[in-house]
Amino acid sequence: MFEERLAGKKVLVTGADGFMGSHLTEKLVGLGARVSVYIRGNSINGTSRYSLKNISHLKDKLENILTGDIGSRDSINLIAQNKPQIIFHLAADAYVPNSFDHPIEVKETNLDGTLNVFHAAKYIEGIEQIVATSSSEIYGTCVGPINEGHPMNPSSPYGASKAAADRFAYAYWNTYGLPISIIRPFNTYGPRHTYDVIPKFIKLALEGKPLTVYGTGEQSRDLTFVDDMVRGFIVMGTDKKAIGQAVNFGTGVDIKIIDIAKKVKEYSGSNSEIAHLPPRTSEVGKLLCNYGKAKELFGWEPTVSIDEGIKKNIEWVKQNQ
Question: Is 172 a known active-site residue?
Answer without folding.
Answer: no
